[in-house]
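Lab notebook, design round three. We kept the backbone fixed and only want residue identities now. Task for the bench partner: fill in a sequence for the structure below.
Input structure tokens:
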């Protein structure tokens, strides 16, 4: 038992305390993680290590600022009607090309998640927007909800903003740089396959209610598409693209300022909206995620302080390779039932450390993909529950049934990317 004591005991205490708080006591994820961190520190004899807790709390400050500014940008885009206009144009343009239409709709569902790093944001914005249109195009409600849930998860993992990857990378002091191509490899093939499975067969059959469809499209086109309507998106692309294409001459403003400047350009869109009210709503929506990141930071800090982190890594290294892959494919999604971010911090970081020697960026990208499946896992199942709500389905398990095949493909693809990380790095870099 020497190998187990005390680090093994502390591991069980912290993980068990977190699970107890999140599942049994129904505490907010941030509170459950903070409580588990404090319990671990006290049990290890460190008392209440305020310095370490504060350091951990602000360890993801840069990520928190990105989330807040990204949510403000997303809300501004939503207020000026750009998402609705794009959806209506997409449907009218590709109505008679079901494969192209399914790909375009899937990309639209993903977009808010790509910007905010939140599957919930994607479901409740673009997901809620396209849901009634898809149903009127002939896609059954359950398949519509499943496509929205999976698209939201893929959007959360796709670049430019991937919070699980930021958390995993932050755990080993690896900057969030060079993740763009690996994250596209992780998400784009899955998004295409999911669209082909859940959307294309039904879109080929034609609209279920033509009159209702036309009425919905006219409502979405209340703000005519124009150059000015695209200003926020264009400004964001120019600011982020310029920094990456011309790093020596382009001023490095940072993602938070890029998002805020792009959001401010929405005032020139020709659509009246209240920027203060929009920013307030955005911050309120982002607070739960920002709180989770503070809790994650404290949890990881105490894991390092007490030796739990090292114990988990050594234990993972001792596992046979085939069992390690199986553990990644099963434990990351299951633990993500409380939060994909919590799964990325508690399990993603040790798994990455156990796989050092491969390309760490590609491995972290794949781990973030698998951890994202946690948003489908009961009892929280955030993506599944909200997707069911937007189509009016009370029993979200009916939606999860149609997510099963895409979910299994996602886990398998993530493992394949990890296994072939070295070969993939030779192609991408």
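Proposed sequence:
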């Amino acid at each position: 038992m020497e190998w187990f004591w005390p680090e093994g005991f502390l591991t069980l205490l912290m993980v068990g305390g977190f699970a107890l708080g999140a599942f049994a006591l129904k505490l907010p994820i941030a509170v459950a993680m903070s409580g588990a961190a404090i319990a671990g520190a006290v049990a290890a004899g460190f008392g209440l290590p305020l310095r370490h807790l504060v350091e951990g709390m602000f360890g993801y400050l840069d990520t928190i600022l990105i989330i807040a500014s990204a949510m403000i940008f997303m809300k501004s885009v939503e207020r000026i009607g750009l998402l609705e206009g794009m959806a209506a144009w997409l449907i009218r343009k590709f109505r008679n090309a079901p494969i192209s239409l399914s790909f375009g709709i899937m990309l639209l569902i993903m977009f808010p998640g790509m910007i905010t790093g939140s599957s919930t944001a994607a479901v409740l914005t673009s997901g809620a927007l396209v849901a009634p249109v898809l149903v009127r195009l002939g896609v059954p409600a359950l398949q519509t909800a499943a496509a929205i849930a999976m698209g939201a998860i893929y959007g959360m993992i796709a670049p430019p903003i991937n919070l699980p990857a930021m958390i995993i990378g932050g755990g080993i002091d690896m900057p969030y740089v060079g993740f763009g191509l690996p994250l596209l490899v992780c998400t784009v093939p899955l998004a295409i396959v999911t669209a082909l499975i859940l959307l294309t067969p039904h879109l080929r059959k034609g609209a279920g209610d033509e009159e209702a469809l036309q009425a919905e499209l006219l409502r979405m086109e209340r703000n005519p598409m124009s150059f000015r309507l695209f200003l926020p998106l264009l400004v964001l692309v120019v600011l982020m693209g310029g920094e990456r294409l011309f790093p020596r001459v382009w001023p490095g403003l940072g993602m938070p300022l890029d998002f805020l400047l792009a959001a401010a350009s929405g005032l020139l869109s020709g659509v009246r909206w209240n920027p203060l009210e929009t920013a307030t709503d955005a911050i309120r929506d982002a607070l739960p995620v920002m709180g989770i990141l503070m809790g994650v930071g404290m949890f990881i800090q105490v894991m390092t302080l007490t030796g739990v982190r090292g114990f988990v890594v050594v234990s993972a290294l001792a596992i046979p390779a085939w069992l390690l892959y199986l553990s990644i494919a099963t434990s990351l999604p299951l633990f993500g039932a409380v939060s994909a971010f919590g799964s990325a911090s508690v399990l993603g970081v040790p798994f990455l450390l156990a796989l050092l020697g491969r390309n760490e960026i590609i491995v972290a990208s794949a781990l973030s993909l698998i951890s994202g499946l946690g948003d489908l896992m009961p009892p929280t199942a955030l993506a599944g529950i909200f997707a069911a709500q937007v189509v009016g389905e009370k029993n979200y398990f009916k939606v999860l049934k149609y997510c099963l095949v895409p979910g299994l493909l996602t886990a398998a693809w993530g493992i394949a990317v990890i296994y072939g990380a070295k070969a993939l790095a030779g192609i991408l870099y």
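Keep this in mind before ordering anything: The chain has a mean pLDDT of 88.
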